[in-house]
Amino acid sequence: MRLTSVDVQLSGTRFTVFYSILANDQKEAEDRALGLAFEQTVEFPIDLTPAGDILERVVGNVESVRKRGDKFLAQISYADEVAGPDAVQFLNVVFGNSSIQPGIRVEKFELNSDMKRLKGPRFGRNGLRELLNVKKRPMLCTAIKPLGYSPADLAELTYKFALGGIDIIKDDHGLADQNFSNFKERVMRSSDAVLNANSKTGFKSIYMPNVTGPADQIVERAKFAKEHGAGGLLFCPGLSGWDQMRVLADDESIQLPIMSHPAMIGSLTASKDNGFSHFATYGQLQRLFGADASVFPSWGGRFSFSKEECEEIVEGTQTDMGNFKQIFPTPGGGMTLERIPEMSSVYGNDVIYLIGGGLHRHSEDLVNNCHYFHNLVESMG
Amino acid sequence: MRLTSVDVQLSGTRFTVFYSILANDQKEAEDRALGLAFEQTVEFPIDLTPAGDILERVVGNVESVRKRGDKFLAQISYADEVAGPDAVQFLNVVFGNSSIQPGIRVEKFELNSDMKRLKGPRFGRNGLRELLNVKKRPMLCTAIKPLGYSPADLAELTYKFALGGIDIIKDDHGLADQNFSNFKERVMRSSDAVLNANSKTGFKSIYMPNVTGPADQIVERAKFAKEHGAGGLLFCPGLSGWDQMRVLADDESIQLPIMSHPAMIGSLTASKDNGFSHFATYGQLQRLFGADASVFPSWGGRFSFSKEECEEIVEGTQTDMGNFKQIFPTPGGGMTLERIPEMSSVYGNDVIYLIGGGLHRHSEDLVNNCHYFHNLVESMG
C-alpha cells in the first residue's frame, strides 16, 4: 500500500556526496546508487514511497554514475533541509545506514548554502599563525607523555619543550583524568610551565590539554582549561563524538584553537571499500566540525598511510569549502627529526610537525633537541 | 635518553581485551601484540619508556598470543586505573590508536572491578518487559516514516501502529529536527497518539523519539520527550558519541529505556581485519554505554550480516558482563512478516522484532497488518 502523498517545504538547494561503489557493471552500480538515495533518506521501499515531493525531492537524487578504476563513482544530491543546519544529521544522511553496507565509501562532499550556517574552525591556518606569532614557517608540536607520569613530572617536560621553542605542547591523547594524572592539576601545572618558559624565551608557545572524556564533563573541562591558562584543546572526535568538537569550537566563553586527534577514527579509512576517504576523514569532516589542526599518522612511521593518502589529507585541509577555514595538517605517528626534510617536500610550510618519542632521541638534552627541531624548521620558513 | 622512573599508584586489578591480529607467524604476532600493548598505553618507544612501574604495570601486558584460524588471538590486559571509571578512556585504551593500524580487531573484552562503577543499561531485558507488560513473547517494534511527513502525518501512523498492538513505535533515525518535521511537535503528537491508542487497547505501547542531534541539545531533547509522554528514546551512538548514550541512561530526571541505532557504526565491522567484532559492537559496547536494545541489520534483509554474525550479536547482548544487564537484540533492516518464523529459530523469545516498510505490505489495512504481526508473535511466546 503506497502511503499518501504530501507537500514538503523545500527551498530547492541541495548538497552533494560522491560515493565509490563496488559493482560488477554499470547497471548494478546504478541500482546500488538508487538504493543509496532511498536508504539515506526515506529508508522505505521504492514502490511504497509516497509520490510527489517525497519521491521527487526528499529522496536523494542520483546525479551521475560513472566508472572510475575498478569501481564506480556515484554523485548523489540531497535537499539541504533533509539535514538542515544540524551537522550530525548531515553525517547521518551522508553515511548513516550506508556505513553498514559493503562496498560504499564516501570520497568527498560539496556543501550548499544551508550547512554554511555552521561556523567551522574558529582559527584555521591564519588564526593559529596569528595566535602563535609564526609568520611563514611550519609549526612545531610535541606531546607530553608517558602515561603514568604525574602532573608534576609532565609539567617538567612541558617546561623543557616550551623552553626549546616548541609551538604547541599537547597532552598525549591517553592522558584523561586518571588517579595518577588528575586533569585539573595537570592543566594548571603545564599551563604555568608554558607561561614561565615563554617569559624567558619570548616565544608564544601554548599548552593543549586533552579534554576528551565523559560526555557530560567535556565543556566543563575545556572551560577550566581556558580559565587556567591553557592555550588550546586536544580533542578526539572518534571517542567523544564529532559534534562535541563543534560545540567546543563554537563556545564563546572558550575561544581556544582545537587540535583533533584520530583515536578510534581509524576504522573509517581501514577499508578501501567502506567508510570515508582520507581526504574526507582527515580534511573535510575535521573542518565541518571545527578543528583547527588535524592529526594523522604520516607515511613512513608506525602506521600504514601511504604518501598519496597523506597528500589527499593535505588537500582535504585546504580545498575550497566556502566559509569553512583552511586548517593545519598535523602529521605524526612515529616521526623523527631526520624525516623533516623529506616530509617538507609534501607538506610545505602550512603544516604542524608532531614529533613525540622521536624528540627524545637526538641527544641527551631535551631542550637542546627542541632547539635543533626549531632551527631545522626555522631554516625552511 | 630513557626518561626517569616513577612510582605509579595502581591497585593491581586489570581488564582484558582479546584482539585478532594479522601476522605471518608466531614471532610477528607476538611483536605486534607487544607493539599494541605500548601503543594503547604509553605510546612511547620501548627503549625510552621509564623502567619500573610504567614499563611493568602501566604498559599493557601481553598475556598470551595463539594461532586461531588464519590469524592470531592476542590477550592483553591493562591496569584498571589506566581507564579509570571513564568509559571513553576505556574505549581509547581498547581501540584508540590501534584503530589506525591494519589487521587489528577487537573480538571481546572482559571487565574487572573498576569499570563496574559504570551503571550500564537502566532497564535491560527484565526492566523493559516489566515496563511494557510483556511477559514472555518477543516484542514488536516499527518505525514511523518516511522522511518528509509532517508531525501530524507521522502521528497518524503512530496511532495506527499502537492500535494494532506494536509495543515500541520509534522514530525513523532520519527524523531529526527538520523544518518539515519539528522535533517538539513530533514528540507531542506521537506521544499523545500512543496514549490515546493505549486507552483503547489496554496495551502499554510506547513511542521512542530520536534524540540524536547537536551535542548541546541531546539531553534537552530527551528531557522534553520525557516531560511530554514519550516512553523511550532512540539514539545513534555512531553519530552522537557512545558516552552521550551513557549520559542519557544515567540521567535520573529522564529514566527512559534507550534503543541504540547503528547509523555510522557500520565501519566498525566492515572489515574482518579491523574494528570490532559483531559481538563487541552490537552487544558488549551497547551494554557498556547503557542501551537497553541494540538495533542491527539481520541476515536476509537489505544488509549483509551473516546468520552467524547475528548469533554472535545475540551472544554479545547476553554474555556475562557482571553488573551490566542483558539487553534486547533488535534485528531489522528489511525484515518482513514472512521471515519471523525463520528468525525465531535464532532469536528465540528475547528479541525485539523491528519491521518497518515490510509492515505496510501484508494488506491494505495498516492496523490489521499490525494485528497480524502481534498475533503471529503472541503465538510464539
Structure description:
- The structure is a homodimer of 381-residue chains.
- Chain A is of the alpha/beta class and 381 residues long.
- Chain A folds into 2 domains: 14-117, 2-Layer Sandwich (Alpha-Beta Plaits); 124-380, Alpha-Beta Barrel (TIM Barrel).
- Chain A is 38% helix and 17% strand.
- The first copy, chain A, is built from 15 helices and 13 strands.
- Chain A has helices spanning 26-39, 53-58, 80-83, 87-95, 124-132, 151-163, 183-201, 218-227, 237-240, 242-250, 266-269, 278-288, 307-318, 340-347, 366-378, and strands at residues 14-21, 61-68, 71-79, 104-110, 139-144, 168-171, 206-208, 233-235, 258-260, 275-276, 293-297, 328-332, 352-354.
- Chain A has a 5-stranded mixed beta sheet with strand order 2-3-1-4-10. Chain A has a 4-stranded parallel beta sheet with strand order 7-6-5-13.
- In chain A, helix 6 (151-163) packs parallel to helix 7 and helix 12 packs parallel to helix 13 (307-318).
- The first copy, chain A, starts with 13 loop residues before the first strand and ends with a helix.
- The model of chain A has no long low-confidence stretch (mean pLDDT 96).
- Chains A and B meet through helix 2, helix 3, helix 4, helix 9 and helix 10 of A and helix 2, helix 3, helix 4, helix 9 and helix 10 of B.
